Model the fold of this input.
Amino acid sequence: MSETPSTSFSMIYPTSSEGQLPSSRHLSVTHPVVAKRISFYKSGDPQFGGVRVVVNPRSFKTFDALLDNLSRKVPLPFGVRNISTPRGRHSITSLEDLEDGESYLCSHGRKVQPVDLDKARRRRRPWHSSLAITAHAHRSPVPAAAPGMLRAPRRLVVFRNGDPKTRRVVVLTKRVTQSFEAFLRHLTEVMQRPVTRLYATDGRKVPSLQAVILSSGAVVAAGREPFKPGNYDIQKYLLPARLPGISHRVHPKGNARSESRKSVNWKVSIITSDLPNAGTSSQIYIILYGQHRSSAPIYLYGTDGARFQDGCEDIFTITVGDIGTLFKIRIGHTNSGLSPSWHCKEIQLWNMNSRKQFYIPVQRWLARDQEDGEICREFPVLNKGQPIFPVTIYEVHVATGELWNAGTVANVYMSIYGEKGDTGSRQLFRSKTSFSFLRGQTDTFSLEAVHLGDLYKIVIGHDGLGPGNGWFLEDVIVKDPTTNREYTFFCHRWLDQGEDDGKIVRELYARDYNIISARQKLEFNRKETWAAESWKFMKGNTLQFYNRLTGGFVRLHPNGTVDAVGKKTDKYGLFDVIFNKENICIFQSHKIRHLSLALDNGSVAGMASGGASTKLRVLYQPNRCALLESALVPGHMVIFDHHGKIADESSAGYANLSKEFVVFVKGMFLNSAVILLATSLCQALCIQPDGSCTGVGNQSEKSYWKVHKISSGICMFESVKNAQMYLRIKDGQCDGTGTGDIDCHFKIKKNLENASISLESVKNPGLFVGLQSDGQAKPVIYTKNGSVFFYPQVIKFGREDPTGISATPSKEEEKIRGSKKRQETPPESEARGPLLSSTAKEISETLLSEDEWKVLVLTGNTGTQANVTLWVYGDEGVTGPISLSKDSSEQLFLPRQEDEFQIEIRNIGIIYKIRIGHDGTSEQPEWNLQRIDTFQVEAVSLGKLQKVLLRCEASDKSQYWYCEKVVVRESGTTSESTFTCERWLPFMSQGIIHSEIELFLQEMQINHQPKIQEGANEGDWKVTVITGDLEDAGTTATVSLSVYGETRCSGPIILGSGKHQLFNSNSADIFKINLKDIGEIYKIRIGHDNRGKDPRWYLEEIRLENIDTRELFCLTVDSWIAENENGGDTWKEMPVVRTNKAPLPVVAYEIYVYTGRKPGAETESNVFINLIGTRGDSGNRRLHQSKNNKVKFQRGQVDIFSIEAVSLGKLKKVLISHNGIGPGNGWFLESIVVKSEEEDGNQEVLFPCNRWLDEYQDDGKTERELLAERSFSAAGDTGSVAS
Done:
């Protein structure tokens, strides 16, 4: 039982000192007379209360059936495999040996630890664990239950979230606790409101029914809303107005009913030190440990004023059951309130029954920010004639697993159990490393407690809070300095609600109270590695064995000799698997079919396939290397010396020998192969629903990739589960939203040391697909730390690429549908090379024979002398690059010329697209991709044309259409009407895909830009965004707009992205937004996310027109919005000018940012600020360019920034944050000062902070809200802005 009921982790413990009674379901059943009623206890565990089992021929037909049944009831690491008499002297081997009414011990091995059965029988089940006294203060004491009788079910106080006065007492019966969901439904009825979540009284989640049953007696019931803090005090509502016989108004917590007829009253005196700030606002509790049992946490609570103040003595009277002779106490607090730190001077205890008195000098801080940071302490109690137990500082080593995202930011708690009690729930929060519980890291903690004797188990878990709260725990080692013993508790499992069995708490046992042998752990890791690597040894695979010591491959020569110095391309270094049974294989030479690798009398040679000597057992090591052992003579290994010659273990020093081999499979990346890119033994790279990539996916179908081989060593990887989604690196991101262009081309780098591969971007040489610690994919520089290592597993082998005509790789790519008269146009060029002129070419393909194709290329007004290449894609493969060339290359691709080529295309299935481009060489490389289509339409005379309506339906991006313009000529006349479009259809506007667009006559473009076809609603406004006519004035970024009214702000409205042909130079884009109930508009803010290849943007003007009232605002900007222009701000604010009132001024706010002087206070992250005043906010602005420092946010430094915003009035607060990017992303912010000059006075406002913005420091937040403390007014100031 935890000593801190307010902590959700405390809910997980069965109990600290109470045992278990036989399960009630066995007590109410009537059995025949021949049945035997037998109690079974756990070897070496006096705190396990035993289970009672009825044994008769009907219930158990065999002794093994009984062992299996007990394995589900008695917690042993490998189940119950042995039953013996209480002292462990005689083993029971049959049902007939069991005697009615007797007790026996269960163990998983032959070694049995005797147990004091009298002590074990007094243990109670966790279901009946002690509650606080006041939880049942109104109940009269009842006698202890007689043997075979059930005790009363537990009661639970349930508070309403945010309303501590609304509470109910719920009885935890079996009917309402059949499942966690059933219990939530019951609480919904009781609380008369939906209940979907439960919290502890301090806000930690209660995630399961087990946590409810083992809780401290109170929970908070909530719907889908977050936890709301409040005074959820269980004593406050359940205490009587006056406790008779207690003169000091004692308000303890403990078990309400008398746990035996010998209840004992104790008088407790606690003196708080007179040091400065020694008093506490937290709730103090005490636990008494006796030889029989321990008390529950007893809260020392007063109703007549504050307790535990500086230099004061507080006296309480508490009542507990018969715990036996007292040998230690635990004192602690809940770390709550404004000033929780506490310095305790001394404690005195009086047993009011026996008149014994105990004095305990404390003189210790119980505070997170003092001494060792512990908020509970244990002290031994001296009894005459009894040994005193020493206070021991246990050293706890917690190893987090190597899996991706194995680390956690949640709060981790642990309790250690020994033969002399437990430590209670302790938070592991002060590691000797900088950051705790990181992937692959071992953290060391110190845990102080009265010596527990021999340790036998721990309970460890976390509270599930934080963005990355799952945790893969490898093992825990506890070192006892008193006895100089180590105890290892092996886990190797997830503590994650979304992984494994969903549990975030584990109970771990030390096997036979000894360190788990390294051999056992090694064997476990070997089995896990074999499960991941066994696919390589399937019959039919062709393998290579690389020896890391020699740096060469194993090869079998025609004369039967074997060495390990072969090259990667050596034809004698290939072996076919011709026999496979579990891990025994025969490896036949791929070149010399009659010879196989063999071990005969300790010598390695080539022998005839099929003989016993050729059968080799493959043994995998945790480092993914294989050992080859003779199946005929176990222990004989394939061994080479450092020269690559055959050796045995006695022929040279061990350092000069090697028997480990890295195994490679040939043909993994053939075209159309289906593979897994494993990131660990049980994880793989996969695409998430949002298109991002992660390395923590399950090794299942959703992680399968189809290989598209581009050329030798270069491939694309398409998701099998999400067709047409390719792995790519683009714009500094690595994701799975590629479309098959050059961004998706990867060069495969094979790592000989571990058989992994690394994927290097072809377009961005030097950038590899890598993984962050949380498993998210990102482009990284190549390192050997494992973040770029992927272990391929072939699910389905592909085939060799069809033979094409080689050529230099293209730099210009265009998609055109080319099979069976289909054509397609991509949403954008796959690569931007040299500038293309505005003339055309046309490509057509005519089927000649099954494999021969004719390609016709029609060039427009401007030709090219560059080298042109073609790729052809089918649903079963790809051919290319194919060089479109002839002997007289200077005569190709001339203006208005049609060129014909004949190419060969084999086995690619139905053609669905082609890609064509050139290498940008020659004096005249420019060549535009364009097509003109002509249609004839008959209609009654329409008069002078004013507009046209275009519509394009597309089911995927391959069907998108880029329309430059529409020219309409009336038959029989020379007049023509031009309607400019210059955008893709469908296109995105305000986050919505539109398939229709209106185009107005060219001379009307100033007043009538393309209009989206939608109906008007109340509050609809038309927004016209005019981009300037400067060179490169357009942007590729995503543009957002915020509109501020007297009633509210619209919030950021995404208008669209330049990638969708919006916001081009010298163009006007029209959008429709809804501003219903916003009130009278007084300002707008427009800006972009600074993403894409060219995010700079020159904005000329914005127009807002109310569609209903025709009210029009024209806001002139005429300014660059870019990080390298005008101070680097990517946002602009403009006041709205009205005829009836003066506009608000645009104010330059000067921001002084003071970085603290603590070690590591500096940051390299991007910092953002939002100023909030009486007239709204400035929006989130990046502090980009410091006026006084080249390097920003350094330790002890002051940085000055300036942002412009429409006057915010009196500043009240700021929101400051950073994005956590960069090697040093934590930041200690001391304060911020904001200065401004306005017509009605100056402001100088101080916003103090003095806290970390660091996910690994303080409270883990990287955003803080800072309130204005005071203003330093210059002459003419109008008043204070102090909050």
Notes: The mean pLDDT is 78. The first strand starts at residue 36 and ends at 42. The longest helix spans residues 518-533. The CA atoms of residues 584 and 746 lie 36 Å apart.
